[in-house]
Each structure stands twice: as structure tokens, then as C-alpha cells.
Amino acid sequence: MQAWKDYQNENKDRFLNELLDLLRIPSVSARSEHKADMLSCAEAVKARLLEAGADKAEIYETDGHPLVYGEKMVDPSKPTVLVYGHYDVQPPDPLELWKSGPFDPVIIDGKIFARGSCDDKGQFYMHVKALETMVKTNSMTTNIKFCIEGEEEVGSPNLGKFVASHKELLKADCILISDSAMISLDTPSIDIGVRGLSYIEVEVTGPNRFTQRCLWRRCS
Ligand SMILES: [Zn+2]
Question: What distance in Å separates the CA atoms of residue 18 and residue 20, rounded to the nearest whole number?
Fold first, then answer.
């Protein structure tokens, strides 16, 4: 444990700078003009996984944006953890509400402000650095796989197909996802189920103003 902490403290600045570099890539999956940025972000994720000590890391093409897979297998008889994350981000609009550029990260009061810093680049990068820490301190106790997709923010239209056709590759004893809710900033929370997303949009059309009398009449 102390070795982990020492390694993290010694490399803290580099870890942070690498994350900031990742945040500078405008990997907006919903906008076709960012197609090249999506690929360069996937390539950056692959490179960081290899640098962290993954045995292999590869970019898989899909019908949409590419997905990055990486793994560090230490012993097939040991359990395997599969880390899921996504490198794509939401469009940054409305731009006028940003105090700094969405892809120009700034740190204020110990918090990083940039699109994707807490959804989900910050979280999955934490796992990449955890892998590096364990590899460098020789303390891997499980096998680790990474599945970092590029289409979460557009509903993951190609993830199901990828999972169905790569069952052996993704085989794991548990899946670790850091892309969910926390009760509060000072209350670490573990979500034990994810059921997807559902929403409704209600569009109401009517006069732009009406009097109380008018309201009453409408009700009667
Ligand atoms: Zn997310």
C-alpha cells in the first residue's frame, strides 16, 4: 500500500498533465466534424494503456466511432476485472456559459474544469493510472481488461454488437464502471446496478399569455 502511495506521489504531476492532454482533445461523438478528433483520442487512449503497462492495446473499428481495448493478464487462474469507460464527451454548447474553453482545461480550487473531466475521461484515466501504479510496484493481484468506447454520449449504438462478437476477449469476473452517480462529493458511493437511460420529452403548445379568466374558461 505504501509503495502505491509513494509511486502516485512521485508521479502525481505527470498523471495530471497526461489527463489534461487527454481533455484537450475535442472528442465530441455527436458531431461529424470531430471524426478525426475521435480517432486521435482513441489513439491517445491506446498509447496511454501501453505506457501504463498493458500487454496489448488495440483500436477496434465499429460502424461508428472506434473502441479501445487493452489488457494486462498476470495469471489466467486469477480473477479478471473489466474496466468500462468512454472517451467521447458531450458537445460543449452553450459556449457562452463557459468561463474558460471547454477543451482548454483549467484548475480552480483543486478542481479541473474541462469537458469530459468528470464524464468520463477523469474516471477511466484514474483506472489507467491505477494499472500503471500496480504494474510499476509489482502488485497486480488480478488480470485487468479495459473497454473504452467512443459512443456513450450518443447511446452506444455499436457497443452491443461489439460485445456480442467479442465475448471471449471481454470475458471477466466482474465489470468496473466509473461513470455513474455519487450521493455527494464527500460520500463515496457504489452503484450496484445500471438499467440504462429513459426519458420523455413533453412539448406543450399554447398562447404565450392568458388571463385568469381565460384560464378558467379553458378549464370549464
Ligand atoms: Zn459518462
Answer: 5
Expressed in angstroms and rounded, the spacing between residue 177 Cα and the centre of ligand 1 is 10
d(CA 180, CA 178): 6
Question: Which residue is it, cell 475521435?
Answer: 38
Bridge pairing between strands 56-60 and 67-72:
antiparallel
**Residue whose grid cell is 476477449:** 169
Cα(135) to centroid(ligand 1), Å: 26
Catalytic residue, chosen from 18, 88, 120, 149, is: 88
**How high is the mean pLDDT in each 10-residue block of the chain (220 residues)?**
92 98 98 97 98 98 98 97 98 94 97 96 97 97 98 96 97 93 86 78 82 50
What does DSSP say about strands 143-149 and 80-86: parallel, antiparallel, or unpaired? parallel
Task: Mark whether 152 is an active-site residue.
Answer: yes
Its CATH architecture, for the domain 2-219, is 3-Layer(aba) Sandwich (3.40)
Instruction: Reply yes or no on whether 120 is catalytic.
Output: no
Task: Report which residue type is found at 202.
Answer: V
Which sequence spans correspond to the domains of the chain? Answer: 2-219
